[in-house]
Amino acid sequence: MSVRLLIALSGLVMLGGCATSPEACDPYNRDASLVTKLACDAGGGYRARVDAGERQVKLDQQENALFRKIDRQITEQQRATRNELRVTNTQHYELERDLQALVAKLQQRTQDQLGLQHRLNELERQMDAGPGTSDAEPETLAQRQARLEALQQQVNRLQQSLGYTP
């Protein structure tokens, strides 16, 4: 009779193993009975959990590879943006420096032209004054010659200032 009982129990265990689902077979469950553990092992419940875990690991690895690829692309874009920004800043600095140099030259040129204009006005005023400023003292030929030479020297200096060669 004990043999019959043993056969009946093993048949129940087999049927119980078929009745267990892979979700019910948790290898970390310490409260599971020996029969449940045998049923999970014989029915392939443990193997199904292992296979599901391996599939999940492969999916996670694929996602991780995609994340790394996206991270590399973002890093490359950041590097390119920094380089573009560096080039743009350099160009902006050079443009600003050139603009300041041009403004300084224009200011100097304007000052030079104002100075030359004042000298030309003074020269015209002296020429308009004519020979002798008072009728009481007539200008001598030597005085006229000296004044004419002084005026000629001023004209030569003005021409040199303007870049003309006398």
Automatic annotation (TrEMBL):
The keyword Coiled coil applies. It comes from the Bacteria. Residues 106-161 form a coiled coil. Residues 1-24 form the signal peptide. Keywords: Coiled coil, Signal. This is Lipoprotein. It comes from Halomonas saccharevitans.
